[in-house]
Sequence to fold (1005 residues):
Amino acid sequence: MYTVYTKQYDSPPVDRREILRYAGIRGEVSELEILLDDCLLETLNKLSYRVCFCQFPLREEGDALDLGFAVTESRDLKRHLAGCHHTVVFAATVGMELDRLIARYGYTSPLRALMLQAIGAERIEALCDRFCEELQEEMKERGWKIGSRFSPGYGDLPLETQSVLFQVLDCPRKIGLTLNASLLMSPSKSVTALMGVSNEK
Amino acid sequence: MKITEFLNDHILYLDGGMGTLLQERGLKPGELPERWNLTHPHVITDIHRAYYDAGSHVVNTNTFGANSLKFSSEELNSIVKSAIAHARRAGQESRGTQPKWVALDIGPTGRMLKPYGDFDFEEAVSVFAETVRLGVKYGADLIMIETMNDSYETKAALLAAKENCDLPVFVSNAYGEDGKLMTGADPGAMVAMLEGMGADVIGVNCSLGPKALVGVVRAYLKYASIPLLLKPNAGLPKAKDGQTVYDVLPEEFAKDVADLIREGVRAAGGCCGTTPEYIAATVRASAQTSPVAIEKKNLTCVSSYTHAVIFGDSPVLIGERINPTGKKRFKEALKAQDMDYILKEGISQEEKGVHVLDVNVGLPEIDEARMLERAVCELQAIMDLPLQIDTSDPVAMERALRRYNGKAMVNSVNGKQESMDAVFPLVKKYGGLVVALTLDEKGIPEKAEKRLEIARRILTAAEKYGIEKKDLIFDPLAMTISADGNAAKETLRAVKLIGTQLGCRTSLGVSNVSFGLPARDMVNGTFFAMALANGLSAAIMNPYSVEMMKTYFTYRALAGLDDNCADYIEFSSHAPQTVSGAVSEPVGILSAGEEYGSELQRAVIKGLKEQAAQLTQSMISAVDSLRIVSEEIIPALNQVGEGFERKTVYLPQLLMSAEAAKSAFEVIKSHLSGEKTTDKCAIVIATVKGDIHDIGKNIVKLILENYGFAVTDLGRDVPPEEIVRETLRLHAPLVGLSALMTTTVPAMEETIRRLRREAPFCKVMVGGAVLNREYADAIGADYYAKDAMESVRYAEQVNEGLNP
Fold:
């Protein structure tokens, strides 16, 4: 018996420098700060921060690794999960409205679309960080810790892993996240990843 | 007994969770539960029987994900057949004596519909249709469409059910904690759309426990005129001692659900985490409750993918600007299939505050049906206003209505038999609020009483098609007072008569009243005020008209529709500043020592949009506009572009300048109106098939346009054949292709191959994150542009090659 949990968060703190970095700006550009403020204001009530996740025990099966929902032969993933006894699989999204805003400004202001794109990139990372911090706190109580995130498509873990992951996490139903035929996620500002769980010492 | 009859005076009990029970019995992570109909028939039958034993009247077959996306057609056939047989057998074996029905369960496909996903609406309809037909074939008693969290997919499923069976259809949506579907719809929007399309029962399931769904349930009760179903989760799952438990226990669940039955819920069961125990408890807790009568709400409304707009006391503004009549620039845009122009017209009307957008793209030279469908799809993708589908062509009307994500306003029907026979069946099938013009075979009667008579006849005819009074809004036709001094008076009387005698809502195309007069705005504003005073509910109008907006805001304040006159005060603080006024300039934007060729050049370089437009406006009467382009705008753009290439200017700054330049060009364009502003070549650009990333492509387009190229943007996810077709049509010497994913590079390669074969005259430049020069060479492109400025350089080169 396994259970997929869902969480919904309030907006995590905004890292302005990071957004500007995603927008391709490497220095101080004062006139863009006003635009950034404006775009942040516009997205304020349009983003939702949802995560669904599930935990599985890990089991080695010869050369392969049983993830509890799939068996993988990815060497990079095995290395990533070395020394771990569980894995947490999660999917996170900031929702559809941002895609709509970006598409809308594609017609009227590519500049704004670019900035919103950058905001989305920063927001989804911030959401993942927030979720992982919280999970880390919970794990600590059991003397466990979580490792860093590893996503389908990294190293030799095939992108096709997305399909299995979506099936297991029931992403469309849990957080409104879907996968299209070319394995692209919609809403676009979304992340899926696996993390290892190991003992603290 | 038919289930719909039973519902008239009984509470209908539904079943509870299936997935959680299957997991307890060993369903593995990632395993498809529908397959258990074939591999574990007894488990499925046992679960159904336990629900019937607990008192459920209806059990849902184990077919939530049974569709042709997941299963081959043979397996799908066996799954649906066995699933219905299991439920049927469970009913026969159950000790329960209540009437029992079997619902064919249909859940979402898990795919996102276009344009934000890759799943086509018609494809979705046909996937659902296949499952529905199997359900009918194997004897399901009703269709249960459930856990839908996207309004558009819900529409596809309901349409499939309606087109493929006569069974009752129940439709249930999954709402988040914010009281909306994942893709944004609120309960009002869903009720409007689903009732309009003829669902028998609608409601809410999954996501949350009963207490958390109270708000959504009450919203349904407020809007719905048909029975409401409720299947909440047993709260949320919590981990407890290594076990999963749901945090709402059966007794609490039953009490909460029974409370909502007493508020008006007519059909109740449970979803994730609920078991037969929950259903038995719910039946016990509500045993003494008699069903609450369902009232007809008689709401006149339309909806978008997010919300409903209700026609009540507060006037509804319908933006009229998406209409080629009398607009040269709009006609050109339609002929060139320039969607940007149309979309921008929509966006700016929304910004002006209209509630509904009229969409009319009828022009003799174009394929109206195709264009209207496309305009509706593209508008609803980027804005959340309900649309009014405005066409006299029934084919165009149907195509647009079918793809519309909500309940549309339909413009229009009239008293001619032919019109009613064409329009009413469409409104009945797809839902809609139809504008009915009070004219008939004999034309528009002069007298208000005669127009009332036509309205009465239209009402009677609509009733025969099963269309209720609330879904008609009458337009008694404003005629110009320049031809007949009494024209306005008769129209106003007709507004009043239709309201008081028929109890119907009215709408007017206001601006007709002033045709042929000077300063039409003033006449329109006053006429609008008079019409509102006579009970008008809506106006098709020009939201750029200050007079009209003044009337709207003052009327609402005067009629007690604006709390504390807040909207009026807000409007008045902006209203007078229309075009004139000082150029606003951000403080400190000019740093010391910087020098610019002119004020306009400075505005472009600094990216000051409004200022660039205003300066151009002020120069245009004195300076030749082509000189403004070549001596002011282009040098400024070049300066920024060079900075970008030297990496002293960042991409967002380049875009700021490009947008400022564009606003200057807009001024020049409207000044020249129709005359050619450029002699540079045509360029076709597109993001290739399978790829939906278009930010980079849009940037390139903007910059190319700045430099005077005639860019035709085919959008994203564009099939090779369309790119070839347009390149041939325009005989474009340059095609720009963009791809952002490795998976879509093959589509780019295929496009290039076909261009080489069918349009050998054109050069192809490519760009996008996954490409580099070698890769571009390998797929046969002529040029790899690493950024927007490089694409301009190459385009200039191609252009010069044409005119040596």
Remarks:
- Helices of chain A lie at 16-22, 30-43, 75-80, 97-108, 110-141, 161-169, 171-175.
- Chain A touches chain B through 61 residues (CB under 8 Å).
